[in-house]
Amino acid sequence: MAHWLSLGALALASLSLCACTAPAAPAPQAPGHIGDAAFLAGVWREVQGESRVEEFWTGPAGGLMLGAGRELAGGKLEFFEHMRIEERGSSLVYVALPFGQNATEFALVSRGPQEVVFANEAHDYPKRITYRLAEDGTLLARVEGDGRAEEWRYTRAQ
């Protein structure tokens, strides 16, 4: 997502979350089940020249998916992040811990076939995280907020 993408997402260096925590936005959450995010399970990678962004997601189990992401430039680690998607009541929450610190939560605001969208309007950047599995099998991760947006196109790593 994430990098995120993305599996926070999620991607990494440019997806750096603020070192402070921000509560999930009070906007109404969309109903959801951990199975709605099952399409994220696996290892995802985007390579552009010397830059490589990866996300790793476990399959859904026990109401939870665990993820991790990293960005490498020229073989050097630039960013890493721990993520999770968890069921809370009748919805989902995306939790990001950039550099393994200070969790930031994003509430599920919409879902569709092979797509989940999380938001936290109280957070500085990003405010919105979207994961969508395209028909060609590419995982699209997008973060946006405050008039800017970034996107990653991951392919499944073998």
Description:
With about 160 residues, this protein is an all-beta fold. It has a single domain, classed as Lipocalin. The chain contains no helices and ten strands. It has strands spanning about 40-50, 50-55, 65-75, 75-90, 90-100, 105-110, 115-120, 130-135, 140-145, 150-155. The protein has a ten-stranded antiparallel barrel. β8 and β9 (about 140-145) form a beta hairpin. About 40% of the residues are buried. Mean pLDDT is about 85; it is low at about 1-25.
Superfamily (CATH H level) name: Calycin beta-barrel core domain
Order of the strands making up the biggest sheet: 1-2-3-4-5-6-7-8-9-10
Number of helices: 0
- In CATH, the architecture is Beta Barrel
The helix/strand series, from N terminus to C terminus, equals: EEEEEEEEEE
Q: Based on CA inertia axes, which overall geometry fits?
A: globular
Count of all domains: 1
- In terms of structural class, how would the helical and strand content be classed? mainly beta
Which range best describes the helical content: under 10%, 10-25%, 25-40%, 40-55%, 55-70% or over 70%?
under 10%
The end-to-end span amounts to 19 Å
The CATH top-level class label: Mainly Beta
Mean pLDDT across the residues is: 86
- Total strand count, please? 10
Question: Radius of gyration in whole Å, from Cα?
Answer: 14 Å
The major beta sheet can be summarized as: 10 strands, antiparallel, barrel
* % residues in beta strands: over 45%
Look up the CATH topology. Lipocalin
Write the layout of secondary structure elements.
Elements (H helix, E strand, L loop, with lengths): L41 E7 L2 E7 L6 E10 L2 E13 L2 E8 L5 E9 L2 E5 L8 E6 L5 E7 L2 E9 L2
Antiparallel strand pairs: 1-2, 1-10, 2-3, 3-4, 4-5, 5-6, 6-7, 7-8, 8-9, 9-10
